[in-house]
Amino acid sequence: HRRLHARETRLSEFNQTERKAMLGSYTKVLFVRDPFHRLIATFLQGMGISPSFSSFVQEVLDSGMHNGSMAWKPLVSLCRPCLIQYDYVVMFGFLRQELGHLLRRAGLPAGSLLPELTDSQVHWTYRWLSEQMFSELSAQQKQQLSHFYRWDLAAFPFSSSFLSD
Asked: Which GO terms of type biological process are on file (predicted)?
């Protein structure tokens, strides 16, 4: 009982029966984004102190899974999709369409609650940025990044990700 109410307890510390009971009454939504796009956004927001994208990526790779920032850790290690059966997985880049569907399923008026989201501009911008940033990386860094994010790439449909190649 005490463990159920502890603030610092991680979901993975509970057994399957306890997790199922705790999460059973919630609608679970997971928002996912291409890991390479997450790296670009983190770099552009200045969360890395590196002068170039290539050196930032090297910092990420050197930090590894356990010492890295939540901004670039693989989603599978953060969101535990094997432990939690999410009701919805919402892909960044399709937010307007998917959030509208989610709000309608919840019985809410989707049109009035959604901000103006221009998904096609987001796709074009990140495609262009990805091409530019990816070209800065060495072949070894590209291979290491694909390996670092291999479970995200396997778990979610990032078919157009530069890391999938």
From this structure: carbohydrate biosynthetic process; dermatan sulfate proteoglycan metabolic process
